[in-house]
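Quick one, tokens below. Sequence please?
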């Protein structure tokens, strides 16, 4: 059974950085397109970033482009989200997600982690 487990969330000051990681439990990791979505209180879950199965393609939400970088290590079954120049509006629960298809909306991902809280203080 595939499991996704996020780590690395926390509290950071505006302008700071955080690195989120997601561990994927199955040996089929390199078959999955991996990404991140986030959900702020009272708002719908929104797409943040995605990386293709072998890392050759990435895509980002406009709101994070140039500040966030997604990467993956297929040897370690992990995907990372390096977040820099964080803003208070980045505060949300961040979810790792996966699907065999390349997805650009959160509804397109079939497998999810439990989420990790990121809070950016002003």
């Amino acid at each position: 059974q595939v499991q996704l487990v996020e780590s690395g969330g926390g509290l950071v000051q505006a302008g700071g950085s955080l690195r989120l990681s997601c561990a994927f439990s199955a040996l089929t990791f390199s078959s999955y397109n991996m990404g991140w979505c986030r959900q702020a209180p009272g708002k719908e879950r929104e797409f943040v970033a995605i990386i293709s199965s072998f890392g050759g393609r990435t895509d980002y939400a406009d709101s994070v482009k140039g500040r966030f970088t997604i990467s993956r290590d297929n040897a370690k079954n992990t995907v990372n989200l390096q977040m820099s120049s964080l803003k208070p509006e980045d505060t949300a629960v961040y979810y790792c997600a996966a699907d065999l298809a390349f997805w650009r909306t959160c509804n397109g991902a079939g497998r999810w982690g439990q989420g990790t809280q990121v809070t950016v203080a002003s």
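The mean pLDDT is 96. The two ends are 40 Å apart (CA to CA).
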